[in-house]
Design goal:
heterodimer, A: about 300 residues, mainly alpha, MetI-like fold, 2 strands, about 70% helix, B: about 300 residues, 2 domains, 15 helices, about 75% helix
């Protein structure tokens, strides 16, 4: 007994004891499901208990499945669209609010951050209301003498609508990330640059941009990871998640449908594997690109 | 541009301030502020319209869509929400599940973070990297296999089933590790010399020192669970067990949702988070700043 106590109190054993609860949950609920999912992607399911190995049939199926490529394309366009807006816009706003030239900058930071407090479900319900045929947006549009827009009933408008929703929801959060990066840049750098006669554009491109690039990389990566998983927004925005002409069909939506509406667990798992490979590849390319980019500077 | 933020910080700065015409700068500040006022209005408006619509009878929500002043005000939507749906139950489920999730997760992350920050052992860095890389795993890869596991473990419709798959939180343990790196090794060694064992060390020295980090993570985890839909949607099918997010999703599922009830539900789901934000703004902001700049 005292030997066990002695062992437990050992300075070499203690960290293992501290780490065990986290690692058990990590291995059981994060690592094991990945192994299981890869295994499932080679199987056909008849119910939850009955499965047979079918080789690459699930992968063959999804790579010859039109909706899979629609979803892949939609998700990629959505992710790129959010990146094109949700990095330059919040960065610009953060720089302006940090310039000391905006009165009550903190109040504006809070106002722009407020949408982040609404859950994605609530964000979805609000935009479904605003974008309804006779909703707020169309009322404003018709009041200005223009034709109402069928936001939620037009296939081509599905991705723009989702990107608009994302812009409202994430601008404030990304702005806070950039703000945190900006306040860490030593003020003396700007003072030295202004002595040397640098203008504000030069200061931004030579000081701010290089020093904020780790934060840009961080926002880029989390936006890619988040963008490729977009699910709740189209689920709430459209009745039962069914967007017109599959215009808002995303990878995550297709996986959810395949798994929990059609109960094709094997195919859903295979789609999940493909999605994971895409996310890891794109993130890795970003790391490499940004690494090179930073070395040049 | 930092010159205006610290006008008196040095003689050089005030010189450069004089160099630029004061009038132009002032107008520029005013223009910028007005632009931000418009932007802030646009960003707050959807939330305001949510609350406003929730106080109007269903028949007036669209006819009054552009009226930004309260009209036909009633709380009838709220009473119908509680009468027709187990909304109180959903709310309670959200509180209990989010609270349970936050407590379990913060415990795992503090204990694990301490081991990663203050001890040397084999495979420590490899483990740490593995945990961080898992942050990139799309949850959609896991949902199907996790669901099958839940069935086999008998965890469908249970709090444990909702909480445990999310509890090994990579950002959480990373945040704790970074925070604990700042605890002085001398402080720990002094306590060891005084006869404290490793567990008393955690309880008596580490825990009091990481209170701000615990508060920050608790707030983040509560927010995270409160706003989560995907996993609870899969675990809970019984309306009595659903948290708010799943309940509201079930309200909007129909072809044409009753926006009066949906907006009342959305308002009630959002107000506690806004209240939490008002009282714990520091924790909200710190959590975001720390997770945002820590990864390099």
């Amino acid at each position: 007994m005292s030997q066990i106590r002695g062992l437990l109190y050992n300075r070499k054993i203690a960290p293992i004891v501290f780490l065990t609860p986290f690692m058990v949950i990590f291995l059981v609920f994060k690592v094991w499901p990945v192994i299981l999912a890869v295994n499932m992607s080679f199987q056909r399911f008849e119910g939850v208990q009955n499965q047979t190995y079918i080789g690459l049939a699930n992968y063959n199926y999804i790579f010859s499945f039109d909706r899979f490529f629609t979803a892949l394309q939609n998700t990629t366009v959505y992710t790129m669209g959010t990146l094109l807006i949700l990095i330059p816009l919040p960065l610009t706003l953060a720089v302006l609010l940090n310039s000391g030239r905006v009165i009550k900058a903190t109040a504006f930071r809070i106002a722009l951050f407020l949408p982040a407090l609404a859950s994605l479900v609530v964000t979805g319900t609000i935009f479904r209301l605003l974008m309804a045929r006779e909703g707020f947006l169309n009322s404003v549009i018709t009041n200005s003498g223009l034709e109402p827009v069928r936001w939620l009933e037009t296939a081509e408008l599905a991705l723009p609508s989702l990107i608009l929703l994302a812009t409202w929801r994430w601008t404030g959060i990304n702005m806070m990330y950039f703000n945190a990066g900006l306040v860490n840049i030593p003020k003396e750098l700007y003072e030295a640059a202004s002595i040397d006669g640098a203008n504000e554009v030069q200061m931004f491109s030579r000081i701010t941009l290089p020093l904020i690039s780790p934060t840009i990389l961080f926002v880029l990566i989390i936006s890619i990871i988040g963008g490729y998983q977009v699910f709740i927004e189209p689920l709430i925005l459209y009745p039962g998640g069914n967007s017109p002409g599959d215009g808002g069909l995303t990878m995550a939506m297709l996986i959810y449908r395949t798994g929990f509406t059609s109960f094709e667990f094997g195919r859903a798992a295979a789609m999940g594997v493909v999605l994971a490979v895409i996310i890891f590849t794109v993130s890795f390319i970003q790391f490499r690109f940004f690494g090179a980019f930073r070395r040049e500077d | 541009m930092s010159a205006t933020a610290h006008p008196t910080s040095s003689a050089v700065v005030s010189q450069s301030e004089m160099a630029s015409p004061k009038g132009r700068r002032w107008i520029s500040a005013l223009t910028l502020t007005v632009l931000f006022l418009i932007l802030a209005f646009i960003f707050v408006l959807p939330l305001y319209l949510m609350v406003l619509s929730s106080t109007r009878p269903g028949g007036y929500i669209f006819t009054e869509a552009t009226n930004l002043m309260p009209s036909y005000t009633t709380l009838d939507n709220y009473s119908r929400l509680f009468a027709q749906f187990p909304f109180g139950r959903w709310f309670l489920n959200s509180v209990l599940q989010a609270g349970g999730y936050a407590l379990v997760t913060v415990t795992l992350c503090s204990l694990g973070g301490f081991a990663l920050a203050k001890y040397k052992f084999r495979f420590r860095n490899a483990l740490f990297i593995l945990i961080l890389v898992s942050q990139m795993l799309p949850f959609n890869l896991l949902i199907v296999s996790l669901f099958v596991m839940m069935i086999n473990f008998g965890m469908v419709e249970s709090y444990l089933g909702a909480i445990l798959p999310l509890a090994a939180h990579p950002i959480g343990i990373f945040f704790m590790r970074q925070y604990m790196l700042s605890i002085e090794d001398e402080l720990l060694d002094a306590a060891r010399v005084d006869g404290a064992n490793e567990y008393q060390l955690f309880y008596k020295i580490v825990l009091p020192n990481i209170r701000p980090a615990i508060a920050t993570l608790l707030v983040l985890f509560v927010l995270e669970y409160w706003n989560n839909l995907l996993w609870p949607l899969i675990v809970f099918r019984n309306p009595q067990n659903m948290p708010l997010a799943v309940g509201i999703a079930s309200l909007v599922g129909q072809y044409r949702p009753s926006f009066d009830l949906v907006m009342a539900a959305s308002t009630l789901a959002t107000l506690p988070i806004i209240a939490l934000f008002i009282f714990l703004r520091k924790q909200f902001m710190e959590g975001i700043a720390a997770t945002g700049t820590g990864v390099k």
